[in-house]
Amino acid sequence: MLGWNLDLGLDVGSCTTRIYQRGVGIILDEPSAIAFAPGGQELLAVGSEAQLMADQSSRDARVVSPVRGGVIADHQAAARMIREFVRRALGRRTLFMPRFVAALTTDATPVERAALLSAVQSAGARRVRLVDRTLAAAIGGGLAPSERASRLVVSIGGCVTEFGIVSRGRLVWGRNVRFGGRDLDEAIRKMMLNRYGVTLAPATAEQMKLQVGAVLPQMARSRVLMGGGEVYGELFRNLQITLDGIPDLLGRAISPIINEIHWSIAEAPTEQRVEIKSMGVLLLGGTALLQGIPQVMRERLGIPVVRAREPAHAVALGLGTILQDLTKLSPDGRRYGGPA
Ligand SMILES: Nc1ncnc2c1ncn2[C@@H]1O[C@H](COP(=O)(O)OP(=O)(O)OP(=O)(O)O)[C@@H](O)[C@H]1O
Ligand SMILES: [Mg+2]
Question: Does 54 lie in the same domain as 159?
């Protein structure tokens, strides 16, 4: 699309980067990874190609994950990755620099905030506004800015779970916990080490998690064997691996999130606590795609838990909504529309 009105929403997560183009939709959804030639800055690959090199422990590439724990950890690599993603998503169709709204994690320090701003600017942005990620997720997950009652929004990503109370279009409280889908992969690796005495590659454990797809045995997508995988860089093909027990394991492994929800509600001011208990939890993030999480949470917390329609894309979709009218966004990026 040619023109001055090239507006992009950017969600750079530890695992995945997503870009939303106003008027178009999600135009990019790729692993947050960039690969350089060993010992230099020569770019080899970005996104899924770079992630594949990391998964294969390729010696011909130095693969960097520039975002760690939800914040920019390698500024140069992040800027380069974002620039490549934008170029790739738009092709060479644009002559103009885009305007960005970028999602920032609630807990970000001023230094982390500045790091994201500057990475997006270095990637070629004409203008950047930052939006609280949990607020964007809530909007993308279907929470109307006019909704008055408070809701607890819980977004379970790869490395981080973000908790926030959203009320009247505003993030009123938020906190992050360094726990996510990768910790579930780690739990599977431990189980497999105990069961078979083998150390799985992290990507293989993640594959098993996706293959099972649930935290309740009756919802598991698959119960048996993987075709193959990687143990210490060696492919295993003949090892019979049962996925039995993994759903229960995952159901137990999400306890830190359930405990955190419990405490978030317990510590909320009285009025909000009452509202959250009746309105419940809005669940988002890639890890929320595991079937059965709402059921387990409902049972353990005794409050309604609803999963957003597109949990993994909620932040990007919310940024898309916000892009429609940036005048409604408060300067601190924590309120969008709603009563003043
Ligand atoms: N269908 C699925 N079922 C279960 N888990 C999934 C599914 N799809 C993705 N995941 C998991 O979701 C996690 C990534 O989620 P998401 O894309 O929300 O993270 P992120 O925003 O990049 O990371 P973070 O929020 O930690 O910075 C990974 O651990 C991945 O294994
Ligand atoms: Mg995320």
Answer: no
